[in-house]
Amino acid sequence: MNEHERSAELLVPYAAGQLEGALRTAVEHHLDGCAECRAELEIWRAASAGIVAADRAVVPPAGLAESALRRIHASSRLRRTLLRAFGLLRAQAYLIRREMWPASAAVMAIGILVSFLMEKPEIVRFLAPLVAAASLAAIFGPEHDPACELTLATPTSPWKVLLARLTLVHGYSLALALAGSLFLLTLVPAELLGTLILGWLGPMTFLSALALLLSLWIGTGNSIAVAYGLWVFQYPRFEQVISPAAAAAWAPVLEAYRRFWGSPLLLIGLGIVLLLLALWSVGRSTPRLVRA
User: Fold this and answer.
1) Number of domains in the chain
2) Cβ(177)–Cβ(108) under 8 Å?
């Protein structure tokens, strides 16, 4: 780059008065002998003068600064927190795999239809935890998030990202299961609706929380296999395939296991503990490029 080209690139900051020292001296020395640059400088000075004149012609409303400050200070801490939370939820909704939403809805719809046709509402209890577990096991990590590195580079902590996705996906699964339960009111007396909901709510909370936690430790596929195995293990009748003596020995264990899955309040409590453990775990196990 020759002297003329270097000086031409510096004409704009020179016209704005932003050059000092040796650079300003060099440009002025070049302008003394270059008519082309002097003509271009006049154009930039005229443009600068026009911008300044237009800016001065704009009169701000009276009390604008005071009004802005009042609005800033009047905004409650709770409102600012809610706005930030909503913004995080909206941002994370775009990063969750899109096919998950229709896939979960389709599986639940098929299960509800089968329940209705067979007049067996307990099918919803069996299916809802499986759908929720598969959904939560696939909400975090590079294998599911095409923008994982970008996500980790933001000032938002990993546990906040996971919590936002957990809220969206688990809330969606709950809505699907609740809609299915309401649809099955034709099969279940209204006074038993609460029992039906608790029948899938407890297992859904525990199983999905377990699948989420395990997905952070051993991967999505393995976590789903473990969660599904634990859930299905309560249904087979082992006394039909093992000896009577072995069946009698295992009967108390299997009965206690089935009672565990039939205790919604216990399952909800354990599920909350597992979710908190998952949120704590992701903050310690996920590498951070920028720590919040």
Assistant:
1) 2
2) yes
Residue 89 lies inside a defined structural domain of this protein: no
Classify residue 123 as exposed, middle or buried by CB count within 10 Å of its CB (0-12, 13-18, 19+).
Answer: buried
Report the C-alpha gap between 227 and 137 in whole angstroms: 10
Q: Which of 41, 57, 73 is the last residue of a domain?
A: 57
Full residue range of the structural domain in which residue 29 is found: 3-57
70 in any annotated domain: no
Domain boundary among 22, 41, 57: 57
* 48/115 same-domain check: no
The total of other beta-carbon atoms located within 10 Å of residue 2's CB is 7
Residue 198, C-beta contacts closer than 8 angstroms, at least 6 positions apart: 264
Q: Which parts of 184-219 fold into alpha helices (H)?
A: 193-218
Q: Please state the pTM of the whole predicted model.
A: 0.66
Choose among 104, 101, 94: nearest CA to 128: 104
Q: Could you give the CA distance from residue 292 to residue 285 in angstroms, rounded to a whole number?
A: 15
Q: Look up residue 59 and give its two tokens.
A: 């009169």
- For 206-261, the pLDDT digits (tens) are 999 999 999 988 888 899 999 999 999 888 776 666 777 777 888 888 889 999 99
